[in-house]
Amino acid sequence: MSTLTATVGMPVSRIEGVAKVTGQARYAAEFPLAGLAYGWVAQSTIARGWIDSIEAEAVLGLPGVLAVITHQNALPLQAVDDGELLVLQDRRVHYRGQTVALVVASALEQARAAADALPVRYDPEPHDVLLSADHPGLFAPDHVNPNLPTDTLTGDVDAGLARAEVTVEQTYSTPAEHNNPMEPHATTAYWDGDRLTVYDSNQGATRVHQALVQLFGLQDGAVRVVSEHVGGGFGSKGSTRPQTVLAAMAARMLDRPVRVTFTRQQLFSLVGYRTPTIQRVRLGADPSGRLGALDHEVFEQTSTLYEFAEQTAAFSRVMYAAPNLRTRHRLVALDVPTPRWMRAPGEAPGSFAVESAMDELAEACGVDPIDLRVRNEPTVEPEGGRPFSSRNLVACLHDGAARFGWTGRDPRQGFRRDGRWLIGTGVAASTYPARSMPSTASVALEADRFVVRVTAADIGTGSRTALTQVAADELGVPLERVDVRIGDSDYGPAMVAGGSMGMASWSWAVVKACRQLRAAIIRHEPVPDGGLVAHADTTDDILAQADLVRHSFGAQFAEVRVDIDTGEIRVPRLVGVFAAGRIINAKTARSQLIGGMTMGLSMALFEESLMDAQFGDYLNHDFAGYHIAAHADVHTIDVNWIDEHDDQLNPLGVKGLGEIGIVGTAAAIANAVYDATGHRQRHLPISPERVLTA
Amino acid sequence: MREFSYARPSQPADALTAIAGTRGARYLGGGTNLVDLMKLGVESPGLLVDVTALPYDLVEEGAGGGLRVGSGVRNSDLAANMAVRRRYPALAQAVLAGASGQLRNMATVGGNLLQRTRCSYFQDVTKPCNKRVPGSGCPARQGEHHNLAILGASPHCVATHPSDMAVALAAFDAVVHVEGPAGPRQVPLSELYRLPGDEPQHETTLDSGTLITTVELPALPLAANSRYRKARERASYAFAIGSVAAALAVVNGVVVDVRVALGAVAPMPWRAHLAEQALRGGPATEQAFKEAADAELARAQPLRDNRYKIPLLRNLMVRTLSELLEAS
């Protein structure tokens, strides 16, 4: 076999890049089908109550209208846990913006006009849409996501706090935030007899396949989900969303292909968002900053349709060596859309509170914020006591400090100035779980090419390219001889692109399949009729893993400039250093980390979904009202990773990169704003208004 | 489907005739606001009369050293015009502070003046709004209003006018030339807009069907020392939360002339006459600037969540005037 340079680790450009920029890459709403009809949702204008009547007849005569699907005529669906998917099944209205009808027409514009004109009458009830820490409906959920204990307790936190010579006790909050991927959620569905095919925008075709099988009561083989190209998700496409069910239902009822695409505005009520959080953090330490107690209590919301419990305090369970450690989550079910995953669910909001509190503790103790973190570095998992598979937070902090020029930082606040700008610097730590989940993959030798099939998703991250590198190296062939086909549920079950588990899970199955095929070739096994092919399933491998705590870690540094007159904040410089195991593709990895930190900057300064208490919806539901960082807000973002080898993860030692970039960014910026101004910002986003009135 | 007709006349008379003959017809400039409002269902015109082929696409020298800006001039072209940049720098700065490059390439001067408020309630047809449906109520007073008016509002409407450009034009005493059913007319910018009172649906003093043809910038040597400063919630592509257009002339430490207009605080670009009066003939000092700002803002009537605009606008006025003092 020829000697080939390994491609894993190299900055390989996206394989589908040309297809995307030339418009040849097809997204879910772009598949042309004969006889295609278009569905448009009519949304409730009350936040709680009942549909009294829907006058479908009033619009059925409008040009092009084919059907009005409501609770009165909708196809019955089989029960599933996720109430958001049981569309049009009853009269109940759970939130403002809920789908109350799907109007189907020959043209998109016709469907839209008819949906807007559809008369719907309601029996409204008073709604309850505002989260507060003293809401009478707060309860302890059975567990928090993904399946973690709601509360944990090690030692005696109250006694630890009472003994502490230095304490920080503060409340922090983060607002509701919406994922807003570039590509809105869309599905094109058609039935061929009893076999359903959907072109669907999602982060994992396997999960969508499973949901459709359940909802429509079908056999496994009767559903195919195709998601070859996906324009981002940030968690909002991590499981099936209602447009998929609506399109499949309408296609069945009308016996023709139907497409349902949500608008940007509709995404603000129909596909999820990050729950707002209220977080009480109590830290107790000795004068050197060594923690004696850490208490992290979280209040957050869910809907009345589905219990979604964000694991916000999970961050505190792994970060610092506090002998007395308590974490608690309390949830209230409000008349709001169901919150869902959004990039680094749990750790993103949780790290804002705890990493801000650590900065407050550093100041209270007169200890440098980096020294404080190093001083509280645990040797084992603080909650539970299990060993880490690898933990390189300290290395990230020190490497980042050197890159950023942290050493010698003046601890005084509010005195560094450049004209009308106040200048400050801040640091925060990052972490995210590094999990691998069962997946299957196959690789076949077809003519002179190796074809890998895995139900992975490439939501813009570069996973197709990274998996090609993985397969090429394992097979010992150049990249050009490998075709990686993804996003098709017919390839067999695989993990979603979510929770930083995509590459860690898929690469394992691909490596396993490639090694099997290579072994078969080396053994000169006779080629069977169907060609040479190897199938792999990692379920047993993953069950056999040792009981370790597997996390990536990182350190983020921010420099900010605060306008004295307007409170406007600029971030000229962010530095991030990450320990995230093996990096498969240096180019797409760097892009993903820059993206995460940019989203963290956006979370720190801009993003906020405003709940309109009178009407019960998120009011600023477009890009003019919901601000995401613009190019002018993003300056130097310096991304680095340390060389980390962890043989307790998966064959390649991959930890995953999707989330960690956003974890800690907001705290680093908030801490820098404190350094610049002397005013602590405990509520996001840090708007000019908050700076001016501090 | 909401069908509409479309015409793109090249002669002003044809535009006026087309509009006059059709109920609910609208002039269409760059479409950067009207098309959005059509998609939202806020506007549903039966006829769009595209005015971008009319002969109003030039910036020309006006009488006595002023400029005449055609209503169809694109924002990008206005901001790039050397005469504007030299003689009315605050106007170029204001235009460049607005929207995005793509929008500025489309948006026209006339359309910019007549754009509608971005109040969330106005833009959501499922909610009440006195401006959109007279008498339906104003949820913004109790609801979300952190970027709505502190000056000139009424119990019926607290919307702000969103333009940056118009703030600079207000400072420079621009005059709007219009053609209408009753013939040509000139309207000082200060008289173009109406405060909402109890009829917030009426936003301007123009009769239905009136077409803006030209915006005249009078000769104003003072304007060469002018600035536009906009505060916003992100570095670009955001409406102002407060802005100031100002021009200052100082001789021997005394303010001989001054212009100040404020944006994002009122239903119209807000000329700060009280601040100007306080400054004219007095010392050009930071203390005087503060007192002038306070004089203007003393009549502000903030709501629950927009009080921050008072210190914001005060700081913006003081800073902008201080910078102009340094530059003068």
The top level CATH class name of the largest domain in chain A: Alpha Beta
As a percent range, the share of strand residues of chain B is 15-25%
Report strand order across the widest sheet of chain B. 4-5-8-6-7
CATH topology of the domain at 224-327 in chain B: Enolase-like, domain 1
Low-confidence stretches of chain A: none
- The helix/strand order of chain B is EHEHEEEHHHHHHEEEEEEEHHH
Radius of gyration of chain A: 26 Å
Shape of chain B: globular
Distance between the termini of chain A: 68 Å
Q: What would your notes on this structure say?
A:
The complex is a heterodimer of chains A (694) and B (328). Helix content of chain A is 26%, strand content 25%. In chain A, helix 12 runs parallel beside helix 13 (502-522). In chain A, the strands form 7 sheets. Chain A has a 7-stranded mixed beta sheet, with helices on both faces. In chain A, strands 9-17-16-15-10 form a 5-stranded mixed beta sheet, sandwiched between helices. A 5-stranded mixed beta sheet of chain A has the order 18-19-24-25-28, with helices on both faces. With 328 residues, chain B is α+β, with helices and mostly antiparallel strands. Among the domains of chain B are: 5-50, Uridine Diphospho-n-acetylenolpyruvylglucosamine Reductase, domain 2 (2-Layer Sandwich); 224-327, 2-Layer Sandwich (Enolase-like, domain 1). Chain B contains 11 helices and 12 strands. Chain B has helices at 12-20, 34-40, 75-80, 82-87, 89-97, 101-106, 109-113, 165-171, 273-279, 286-297, 309-327, and strands at 5-7, 25-28, 47-50, 59-61, 67-70, 175-180, 183-188, 211-217, 226-232, 240-251, 254-263, 270-271. In chain B, the strands form 3 sheets. Chain B has a 5-stranded antiparallel beta sheet with strand order 4-5-8-6-7. In chain B, strand 11 and strand 12 form a beta hairpin. The mean pLDDT of chain B is 97. The chains are: A alpha+beta (694), B alpha+beta (328).
